[in-house]
Specification:
Chain lengths: 303, 303
DNA sequence: TTGAAAGCGCTAACAA
DNA sequence: TTGTTAGCGCTTTCAA
């Protein structure tokens, strides 16, 4: 490559890295031309070895149900990271072994990492690996590490509050089926129960396939673990019974009547995650106060 | 590290790479002990530079709706790749720009790549990058490149065939709402239309929110684009109307009555993808006949 | 404005 | 059985 342009390897490096001050316009052109005709791409491994850092950011995704919430989360943060010039790649925590994430970090030496606190490799190992920025999903692992928490328990709280405001005093909660969703469901119920106790709401909990049994208790409103369950239950509800789902799925928006649902985090919040990571990598000081991504009600026509 | 164990760097390399023939048991122990106490991890960048290959496999995920099908696909193939010793990472094609995948490949130099044919960087570039194995999702980009196709159109075919076998002659198709799902829906309808024409079935197509309108045509069976739509429609169906969904979602299995649905690919098929890639990377000869992952009906209680 | 050269951390061929 | 050393492709300092 250097030979083809008739210059030294150093000059090529300067041109391709945009250190314009150093090379004359003529040489620059010549180098770029040669690079184009040869289809030259710098070897990122060599560059990373020399520079001590890569451009990769690993986003470690916890074992959440793959659906609209995760889609939003990824397209927001991954999209923003890409725009900032990084190479965002997603690691599925549950698809590999317990120390899969650590192995992945050892192998690609990401400059940044977004990971659930529960799957986070020891911080000192990461730092030794050249990881400059670390952001966690969930509680901060130690002071100073920025964290973003999707407040799952607040989903239940917000739902009950919303219904209570509208005068409902007897709410049926449709909880998830299937073991994968169980922990998430329990988390949301904790918030719902607390809010119900606080607001004087009677809460009946039944699994999603026990709708008929639940309806026997004559609730005036139904809170469903997700929009899928909500939409499934909708047509079996007696007239006048309110319904609120969770996830702000595309389906909820398109349903007739439009389903009232709960959004778990905003695109802006997810982009903010990416920008925080970027600031850390750049060595800027960052406000490390844990960020709580609080769910909010998307008002539809069913409550 | 070498110093700490009192041996040469070469010896450390041999021990850690399991070239046992070369080192004595004593030295081996000493090196491993030193590695443990120092928390030493080889620098994968340097190793990759030297070896000319990484352990990374990029799985480029097309713009498919994030749900049970993708979850299955990933946990099958990613899990298997992990087990084979690779470092599988997922790239979301739609979250980055049009040549995002190529940039990602340039930056991490994956030894293997699974990508939709439509997003595949030029093969010669990949090969120049050190990518030894390439498998596509969709039609093969050129002879000899193994490919796996999720036959989306066959979803419709299989659904109509299943219903026709059970004597249905007037089927209502509930098509997706939302632009993201539109292309997939159209693909499935193509198959459904062809099968309907062939088998003498009358097919009525309405969007998922037009169920009432569709039911006015008195269908004896309903085919839904996905399980979410199917479960949403279920309770509005007149008694005796059959129902088949798509995706084999957890929800379909847990519904009462259990929903008949269509599975789009098996875990075994997905693992096979991973093994094919592995064989290619190892330089073994591989049967490159395009593999069609044919959908199949999961019999429930609604047809 | 440009070239020469050191060195990032590792592996493998060769020497001892 | 072990050590020495060249070199993977790049960036960056120093010298010209």
């Amino acid at each position: 490559m250097a030979a083809a342009a008739g210059v030294s390897r150093a000059t090529v490096s300067y041109v391709l890295n945009g250190v314009d001050a150093r090379v004359s316009e003529g040489t620059r052109e010549r180098v770029l031309e040669a690079a184009r005709t040869l289809g030259y791409t710098p070897n990122a491994m060599a560059s990373a070895l020399r520079a001590g850092r890569t451009s990769v950011v690993i986003f470690a995704l916890p074992n959440w149900p793959l659906g609209p919430v995760v889609a939003e989360l990824l397209s927001g943060s991954v999209g923003e990271l890409d725009r900032l010039g990084y190479t965002p790649l997603v690691h599925f925590v549950h698809a590999s072994g317990p120390d899969g994430l650590q192995r992945a970090c050892d192998r690609v030496r990401p400059v940044g990492l977004i990971a659930p606190t529960s799957a986070l490799p020891p911080l000192e190992l990461l730092r030794a690996n050249g990881t400059r920025g670390i952001v966690t999903l969930g509680p901060p692992p130690e002071e100073g590490v920025p964290s973003f928490t999707l407040e799952q328990d607040r989903v239940g709280t917000v739902a009950i509050e919303h219904l209570a405001e509208r005068g409902h005093t007897h709410v049926l909660a449709l909880t998830p089926l299937g073991s994968q969703l169980q922990p998430l469901g329990e988390l949301r119920l904790v918030g719902a129960r607390a809010a119900a106790a606080r607001l004087g709401v009677t809460l009946t909990e039944v699994p999603a396939n026990g709708l008929a049994r639940g309806l026997a208790r004559k609730p005036t409103a139904v809170y469903a673990f997700n929009d899928e369950i909500a939409l499934g239950a909708r047509d079996s509800l007696p007239p006048g019974v309110a319904l609120i789902g969770t996830d702000d799925s595309p389906a909820s928006r398109l349903a007739h009547p439009r389903l009232t649902t709960i959004q778990l985090g905003t695109s802006e919040g997810h982009r903010e995650m990416a920008r925080t990571l970027h600031a850390l990598i750049e060595g800027r000081d960052v406000d490390a106060t844990p960020v709580l991504l609080t769910p909010r009600v998307i008002q539809g026509e069913t409550t």
